[in-house]
Amino acid sequence: MDSRTEGLKPQCLVRSHDRLGEGPCWSAREGRLYWFDIKGCALNWVSPDSGEAGRHDLGLRASAAAACAVGGLLVATERGLAHWDSDRAALRILQPMALEPGFRTNDGKIDAHGDFWWSTMDDDGGRRPGRLYRTRRSGETEPIIDGVNIANTVTFTADGRKLLLADSQAQTIFAYDTVDLSRRTVFAHTRGETATPDGGALDAEGFLWNAQWGGARLVRYAPDGRIDRIVPMPVEQPTSCAFGGPDLQTLFVTSAWDGLSDADRHAQPLAGGLFAFRPGVAGQPLPLFEGTLIHPERLNGR
């Protein structure tokens, strides 16, 4: 294990009390960390430098985002792809999409080429399999991978050649060859444990940081899938993580209280909060979404 594990204690940055916190996304342009409360139908934000924070009622379930070159966020929602206008604090559906009844969006991230990948899942615990979609810079959205019950992690290597995708129901993180997605190998798994792989982020050294639902921990995996570090969390259900800050050296971690008993919630008063710590390594920078799906004239209402 890496000795840098010692002394790492994630601190609660925002007591947001999210029922299902997810989808942390750093906006360098705004100096803000955004994240969702999926089941609370809300978008949260915090400016780490000033400590200012806010929460917006979206009126629908949204779960994943990418920062846009024109400003704001491209957002995956249960009604389709949308743009979050940070200046107006408004969400506009740009590409309506009817999901199968009972389904919602889940994880998502932009790849090295600037395409946005996002997943859907059965909100009944992933009982029916969902899909992974890709929205190209051209605006075209297409299903890419079927048969994933609870798609999480959705993280790409810096060269764009490998997709790390977890099926949380199978407690497995798979590595896909992005040139030929039929080529899939097991990257890591937690089968036989209480911990389940959830959302993740790659650092500048090519290691995957993975939040593990039910395990009260973050795990840093080496590029070959071996465990490099384990960082304990003060809550049982961390859900995802993202690097941010001006130097990308802060790791932000979302969490959830959904499914916890009253006794467990009492024992974990910070469940559903946003956590942060500096892991001693910078994050992998992510490109902005510059796709033609988002046109400045449309965003301005012309």
What does this structure look like?
There is one protein chain. The chain is mainly beta. 3% of the residues lie in helices and 48% in strands. The protein is built from 2 helices and 24 strands. Mean pLDDT is 94; it is low at 296-302.
Summary of the model, kept short:
The chain is 3% helix and 48% strand. It has helices at residues 262-267, 296-299; strands spanning 11-14, 21-27, 32-37, 42-46, 53-57, 62-67, 73-77, 80-85, 90-96, 103-110, 116-122, 130-135, 141-148, 151-156, 162-167, 172-177, 184-189, 196-202, 208-213, 217-221, 227-232, 238-244, 250-255, 274-277.
The major β-sheet equals: 4 strands, antiparallel
Name the structural class: mainly beta
- Main sheet: strand order: 1-24-23-22
- Please give the oligomerization state of what you see: single chain
The whole-angstrom Rg is: 18 Å
Distance between the termini: 56 Å
Order of helices and strands: EEEEEEEEEEEEEEEEEEEEEEEHEH
Q: Number of helix segments?
A: 2
Approximate strand percentage = over 45%
Cα shape: globular
- What portion of residues is helical? under 10%
* Poorly predicted parts: 296-302
The residue-averaged pLDDT reads 94
Q: How many beta-strand segments? A: 24
Labels describing this entry:
mainly beta; four-stranded antiparallel beta sheet; 24 strands; disordered C terminus
SSE topology:
Layout: E1 11-14, E2 21-27, E3 32-37, E4 42-46, E5 53-57, E6 62-67, E7 73-77, E8 80-85, E9 90-96, E10 103-110, E11 116-122, E12 130-135, E13 141-148, E14 151-156, E15 162-167, E16 172-177, E17 184-189, E18 196-202, E19 208-213, E20 217-221, E21 227-232, E22 238-244, E23 250-255, H1 262-267, E24 274-277, H2 296-299
Antiparallel strand pairs: 1-24, 2-3, 3-4, 4-5, 6-7, 7-8, 8-9, 10-11, 11-12, 12-13, 14-15, 15-16, 16-17, 18-19, 19-20, 20-21, 22-23, 23-24
